[in-house]
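Why this split exists: single-chain examples teach little about how molecules sit against one another. For that reason, every record in the complexes split bundles all components of an assembly together and asks for one structure covering all of them. Below is a record exactly as it appears in the raw files.
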Amino acid sequence: MVHDLFTPSIQHTLDLVGIFVFAISGSLLAVRKNLDVFGIVVLAEATALGGGILRDIVIGAVPPAAFTDLGYFLTPLIAAVLVFFLHPQVERINWAVNVFDAAGLGLFCVTGTTKAYSYGLGLTSSAALGVATAVGGGVLRDVIANEVPSLVRWDRDLYAVPAMAGATLVALCIRFSTLNAVTSGTAVVAAFVLRLLAMHFHWRAPRSWNRRTATVEVEQHVE
Amino acid sequence: MVHDLFTPSIQHTLDLVGIFVFAISGSLLAVRKNLDVFGIVVLAEATALGGGILRDIVIGAVPPAAFTDLGYFLTPLIAAVLVFFLHPQVERINWAVNVFDAAGLGLFCVTGTTKAYSYGLGLTSSAALGVATAVGGGVLRDVIANEVPSLVRWDRDLYAVPAMAGATLVALCIRFSTLNAVTSGTAVVAAFVLRLLAMHFHWRAPRSWNRRTATVEVEQHVE
Amino acid sequence: MVHDLFTPSIQHTLDLVGIFVFAISGSLLAVRKNLDVFGIVVLAEATALGGGILRDIVIGAVPPAAFTDLGYFLTPLIAAVLVFFLHPQVERINWAVNVFDAAGLGLFCVTGTTKAYSYGLGLTSSAALGVATAVGGGVLRDVIANEVPSLVRWDRDLYAVPAMAGATLVALCIRFSTLNAVTSGTAVVAAFVLRLLAMHFHWRAPRSWNRRTATVEVEQHVE
């Protein structure tokens, strides 16, 4: 079965790690937006669980895992409490948070694609839903915080491409019947490393062609 | 069966009252945001039904009750029409709207928890989904209106805590097999009174510790 | 069966046309908001598929058609690529985009209502869900782009009314057992023409009564 890539306990531990780091990123945004402790908890839960809940509802796996596994619900709470009390210290290790977030991104795009395929979706749809699982929580976080999602802003380092690379690798492995713990682990690492490189070299996605001619005056004031 | 707390007709009437007052709060925000009549209707429906639709989709109770019971759909329309024609008068009784909204909050956190449990969720998850049912409509209202959700703003009176208290009481009653019309009614009243007290005494939730040292200059300009 | 209004291939072609034009409108907003190429793709997919995915989740038709039919997923990608490379040219034919968007609106309100009814919803709920299918993608587009949804702004031409007219016509046809390719085609055309007229004559929806007395000073500064 394709959704047992690792032993259940390893898979579960990796899930919780991904959920934890996504929750840290949600909590930090809540503090920066000057929200209260419930804002921290809401953004922690939404960022960590939003992508997975969306995936499970789309594939019909209800109630979503986030509501049947208590650990999925409690882990973001721990992250929120940590950020609540130790905010300056967490900010100071922001690079570490970014590294963990990259790990979560790699993990979620792979498990999202695999779970979607195991529920009968086609390969392309599975990869698309895997990407949505990985980036969905972050979009929900930014929508609730009333910000333009970091995912779609041109002045942010590539975030979707690493997830797309990881999800595509998994889909190819499924297509050629070579999906196992090693190949899916490779896909996780590929997405993880791609995201680290994008952050290190500030790789960015292009905006539409011929846009500058039309908006050059506006941009002079904005930038 | 845990989801028959009251006689069906009483339960249904209470649901409609909660839906109505939530719809009033959505309609009022639409008028304040200068939206047109469809904005009033959209925010009325979203505020009143959003939490329940989310709950029903998560637990797999589709189509959601909001789409099978015509009264659930029509009640927000009546609230929207009332606010459309009588906006200044409704604003003038804003304290009454707040009292009814508190009643809706108490009712929805209890019925949400109970319904989630009756669909097989665990106690903690049921309570969490009960809180989400109670506050979800308000978050959706604020997201559509392009505002930071009132739920997560530090300068608003406590809203989540009363819902959490009510949902927790219900979960405890289920745990000790004492859930009936009296105990669940007590949970509704507890959440209701807590919310009234929070409004009266302007109880607010704290923001993260050590935040001030970092943001004191910014706040001087903002506040 | 009510959901086979046209031959499957005609129905499918019409769906793809509607999806394509909605995706163009999402892509154009992404360019105007200065988003990168992923922003263009995300808004294209969200605008084109959001309404249908919401409808399918509500009626329990999971996985939604958007995830089982590859054409539904790829069509918005084509629209996004077109806008990415040919943005000024697409802007220049904006009137054509608006005409196609009106066609998508007419089509989606009719197919949404029909599909909801075929999954067992009542007539009123089916019509309401049909309207939500037609306008839902646009609301999701605006929420992700961090704008007040165009649907609810008083300074935009009527958008909901044509969809409501089309959905109501379909519901009446179902009620009187006269729904067929001709009558549902008529409903599509009625909604389409109504939307064109609303754009041509700048029909707008009223805001709440007695609003001006309260907000006149504010508006003098805003407008």
